[in-house]
Specification:
Blueprint (H helix, E strand, L loop, with lengths): L1 H27 L5 H42 L6 H35 L3 H38 L3 H48 L11 H35 L16 H21 L10 H27 L3 E3 L5 E3 H26 L4 H10 L3 H14 L2 H30 L3 H23 L4 H43 L10 H42 L1 H12 L9 H8 L7 H15 L1 H18 L1 H40 L1
Antiparallel strand pairs: 1-2
Length: about 675
């Protein structure tokens, strides 16, 4: 057993070395002229200011929950005070993953802009290198943290049948810590980025008539900061939670095989427990190999280059998983329920999850890619006004839920057929085995978006912005794909953990004809809607404050006011201005008070993330104590089904809308 755990820990260290190497490589790339580096500094400062404010709040939450878990572990049979340690380490690793990713992303953005001055391929290389730090940083912290904690707890408690349940119970705190940070980071970052985006676009493009990301817009720095805090730090924490949650869920269900005689020679009976860690550790190497296949020439398709890296990594993972499973699991065994399972069946379950993940990625690419019919449909219907644009986008988002749900359902049925509930959990691990490269592909998107903003604000040649826009359009699709992987794996993991909950609650079945169960089901289905409404309302309030601030600056700052008049006079074609007008226009450089807009988004998002977070954490507690185990089971089932559909719909609709805008911009050129 120790050999596999040491292997996992070593793979975590390998990922750490890769992260250090890539981070150093990005830092050594050219960062451009003084104006470009100045803008990048504003973005980096704003991003770190948000993280600092967010983590101040989260530290208080982590300490309070840690104390509660310390008391719970001290008095509850089968638990241990070290549960609090697992929780704190999980929360720390999740926060650290977001921090490291954002540090490198805010370095890579301006370097991607500079690289785009020479070629598209060079720009992709820099942006993807920045994203790979985020991707491999997440898997490194997840695998290394779990491996070291598992080694510690098995050393302290022992590894016999009586103690393995306690070890996994305590280790589960790691997942809880990761989930807590992910919840608040995703909500806070999402509110920040959308409030800044809406505020910047409505006043800048719609009212003032200036181009997107123009330096005259006081909200443009906040908008670029939002790309980092929402889609880098937030998404990193989100996938970190899904990643470690799937591993721990499979480990918990694998413990049911420990006492079986067939597992006696399988790593002290713990073969099924350590298999998820071994698969995740192997996925690190496959992800690193996949990163070397991501290359594109000028005029090439960045999406194809990213797909080659991702699919190549997945193919290698399929091959490697055969040998890992056969080496760890017994050839055949009979479970406590009388069902016979095989190592080959475990491989089929892993394969089902991995293929379902790739399928979700491809269908997401179809619905959000710039050259595909759903996005072109939205672009065409946008020509007749906002109403038809909204109708088309909502329709595309809703329809896009169909095939992902079918793929997730197929993965559930196939994996359950071959390996029972443990197979479903292993399918989730298989889906996220290549999280390193999946998240690298995802994090590359906001880096490219920032690069385009810096190119616009620095007044670089048109071809530079065209290259960054091409990368950004693909980034919108990869962001939606990343969310699809997170949603799909979360659905599989939730089902596995749901079975574990029923086992702990001593429920053999949940009858939906019972009123208490149906009430729980309905309340659970309602929660994602209320959660989304709270987040959207917070975005609306923050965006209004942002709009008022931008209007104030356009009205009260003379340099901005005069520059806007010149922009309107020449319909944003500033090259037509006279020399005297250009002098007036240049006086507006750095006249915008960017920090005030950053402060508005920061304060609004930190304040607004609390209520949705408490709703998600408090609802199961209230229903569990007030309605009992069966009502809580209904709640968990309802929130899973509704949440998966809402997540896919919103993610794909947003990606399709964003790329429809790119299509219209390209057409106008």
């Amino acid at each position: 057993m120790q050999s596999v755990l040491y292997f996992s820990a070593v793979m975590g260290v390998v990922a750490l070395l890769f992260v250090v190497w890539k981070s150093s490589w990005v830092s050594k790339q050219e960062s451009g002229n003084k104006k470009m580096t100045g803008i990048a500094h504003h973005i980096a400062t704003g991003a770190m200011a948000f993280l600092k404010a967010e983590y101040k709040v989260l530290i208080i939450f982590v300490i309070l929950v840690g104390i509660i878990l310390l008391l719970k572990g001290s008095f509850e049979p089968g638990s241990h005070p070290l549960l609090a340690l697992s929780f704190i380490v999980g929360a720390f690793c999740s926060a650290l993953a977001g921090y490291l990713g954002m540090r490198v992303a805010t370095k890579a953005n301006v370097r991607t802009t500079q690289a785009a001055r020479s070629s598209l391929g060079r720009a992709l290389e820099v942006a993807f290198a920045g994203g790979s730090v985020m991707g491999l940083g997440v898997v490194e912290l997840g695998v290394l943290g779990l491996s070291l904690l598992f080694l510690l707890y098995t050393y302290l408690f022992g590894i016999d049948f009586d103690n393995i349940g306690k070890v996994l119970n305590v280790l589960a705190g790691f997942s809880l810590g990761a989930s807590s940070i992910a919840l608040f980071a995703r909500v806070g970052g999402g509110i920040y980025t959308k409030a800044a985006d809406v505020g910047a676009d409505l006043v800048g493009k719609v009212e003032a008539g200036i181009p997107e990301d123009h330096p005259l817009n006081p909200a443009t720095i906040a908008d670029n900061v939002g790309d980092n805090v929402g889609d880098v730090a937030g998404m990193g924490a989100d996938l970190f939670e899904s990643y470690v949650g799937s591993i721990i869920g499979a480990m918990v269900l694998g413990a049911s095989f420990v006492a079986l005689p067939e597992f006696g020679n399988s790593f002290n009976g713990l073969g099924a427990v350590i298999l998820p860690l071994a698969l995740a550790a192997s996925g690190i190497i496959m992800s690193i190999i996949g990163t070397f296949f991501v290359k594109v020439k000028d005029g090439g398709n960045p999406q194809r280059a990213l797909n080659i890296g991702e699919f190549g990594s997945s193919l290698l993972m399929i091959i490697v998983s055969v040998f890992i499973i056969r080496g760890i699991m017994p050839e055949r065994w009979v479970a406590a329920n009388g069902e016979t399972y095989t190592a080959l069946g475990i491989f089929y379950a892993t394969l089902a999850g991995l293929l379902a993940g790739l399928g979700i990625g491809k269908i997401t690419e179809f619905h959000t890619g710039t050259g595909n019919s759903p996005v072109r449909l939205i672009a065409r219907q946008s020509l007749t006004g906002s109403a038809t644009n909204i109708i088309a986008g909502v329709g595309v988002g809703m329809f896009s839920t169909a095939i992902p749900i079918i793929l997730i359902s197929a993965a559930i049925l196939i994996s359950y057929h071959f390996a029972g509930l443990y197979g479903i959990a292993i399918a989730a691990v298989g889906m996220l085995a290549n999280t390193g490269i999946q998240l690298a592909v995802d994090a590359y998107g906001p880096i490219s978006d920032n690069a385009g903003g810096i190119a616009e604000m620095s007044d670089l040649p048109r071809e530079v912005r065209m290259r960054t826009d091409k990368l950004d359009a693909v980034g919108n699709t990869t962001a939606a794909i990343g969310k699809g992987f997170a949603v799909g794996s979360a659905a599989l993991t939730a089902l596995a953990l749901f079975a574990a909950y029923m086992q702990e609650a001593h429920l053999t079945s949940i009858d939906i004809s019972k009123p208490v169960v149906m009430v729980g089901l309905l309340v659970g289905a309602m929660l994602p809607f209320v959660f989304s409404a709270l987040a959207m309302s917070a975005v609306g309030r923050a965006a209004m404050a942002m709009i008022e601030e931008v209007r104030r600056q356009f009205s009260d700052i003379p340099a901005l006011k005069n520059a806007l008049e010149i922009m309107r006079k020449y319909d944003s074609k500033i090259e037509k201005a006279t020399e005297a007008e250009m002098e007036i226009f240049q006086l507006a450089d750095d006249a915008a008070e960017y920090d005030k807009c950053v402060e508005i988004s920061t304060k609004a998002s930190i304040k607004a993330m609390v209520l949705p977070g408490l709703l998600a954490i408090g609802s199961p507690v209230v229903i569990g104590f007030g309605g009992g185990a069966e009502m809580l089971g209904g709640l968990l089932a309802g929130v899973t089904a509704s949440g998966v559909l809402m997540a896919i719909f919103q993610s794909n609709a947003g990606g399709a809308w964003d790329n429809a805008k790119k299509c219209l911009k390209k057409g106008s050129k």
